[in-house]
Amino acid sequence: MLKGSRWLWVSNLENLTREQRKAFAALKRRFPTLKKLWWHRQRFRRIFEDRTLDSPEKGRAKFMEWCEQGKRLGLKALEKFDQTMVRWMEQIANYFVSRSSNGRTEGFNHGIRGILWRAFGMHNFSHFRLRVLHAFG
Q1: Which pTM value belongs to this model?
Q2: Would the CA dihedral through 95, 112, 125, 127 be positive or negative?
């Protein structure tokens, strides 16, 4: 029953069609543990959308509260994620200074790696440079 349902679990509700929402509701009834994890993900998303969090300190407090809520769920899958959150909390909380991310840089890096993957490694830098300029302008 879960096969092929990953998209429903990782998508935001507003991006699902009526039929997809119906199917997703049935999945959440059938798999209550995944439903808990999904709600926990929703709370995580709301932290980033909360405009009252206007400083790293407030953001850090909300993230730590979220991590504690995750521990109470008792899901082993969250333990490693929580450890990563705590380890990088300073950098993550800095998002609330200007509400910007490095998503664009990560996208460029992924695109450049894609060029290298397709070229099976490139020994001529000028050819590589031309491909990057062609892809990204």
Answers
A1: 0.73
A2: negative
